[in-house]
Automatic annotation (TrEMBL):
Keywords, alphabetical: Amino-acid biosynthesis, NADP, Oxidoreductase, Proline biosynthesis
Domain Pyrroline-5-carboxylate reductase catalytic N-terminal: start-end pairs: 3-52
Residue span(s) of domain Pyrroline-5-carboxylate reductase dimerisation: 95-199
Homology family: Belongs to the pyrroline-5-carboxylate reductase family.
Gene Ontology biological process: amino acid biosynthetic process
EC number: 1.5.1.2
Name of protein: Pyrroline-5-carboxylate reductase 3
A Pfam family hit: P5CR_dimer
InterPro entries attached to this UniProt entry: 6-PGluconate_DH-like_C_sf, NAD(P)-bd_dom_sf, P5C_Rdtase_cat_N, P5CR-like_CS, P5CR_dimer, Pyrroline-COOH_reductase
Pathway note: Amino-acid biosynthesis; L-proline biosynthesis; L-proline from L-glutamate 5-semialdehyde: step 1/1
GO molecular function annotation: pyrroline-5-carboxylate reductase activity
The reaction(s) this protein catalyses: L-proline + NAD(+) = (S)-1-pyrroline-5-carboxylate + NADH + 2 H(+); L-proline + NADP(+) = (S)-1-pyrroline-5-carboxylate + NADPH + 2 H(+)
Amino acid sequence: ALGCQTTHSNQEVLQSCSLVIFATKPHVLPAVLAEVAPVVTAEHILVSVAAGVSLSVLEEEGAMVMARGRHARSSETKLLQDLLEACGWCEEVPEAYMDVHTGLSGSGVAFVCVFSEALAEGAIKMGMPSGLAHRIAAQTLLGTAKMLLQEGQHPAQLRTDVCTPAGTTIHGLHALEQGGLRAATMSAVEAATCRAKELSRK
């Protein structure tokens, strides 16, 4: 209905496309790579978004990877970056940062959802209807993220800007500090990163 071509054959995808994105679960990827290896050529650009699968593992399977280094050229890096930026911000980083990125951004989606839910539940506790509270919480996160990205300022600066002496925000921030929000969040990113590293070693 959308004009997209589909197939049940992984090899057929590589025979039809030069840039292929592997978006499988990590434990499935080795079998998929083995399946398509016979039809991979030097002209293919292969991209993996599977958590915990290192470039060396991909290369052992006979696949070329889209990462600056052994095989990828600057033009290929630019092509992939342009494609990914259609969905959002994209930046090339060393492979060593990949597990940290998984802990921060990949798992961070769930962490932010928990925080958004907690924000809304605080408002619900104080008498606001649930649907409205969740919409406002999500919009608050969206607006804050836009300000951080557009202004390019450190979060601490924006936090300071909205804190009036003896006002509502500083009282709320005090409660967050008492609850250990910072430490818990840092520990969550650390735990997710460590788990990603464990998956990489497997």
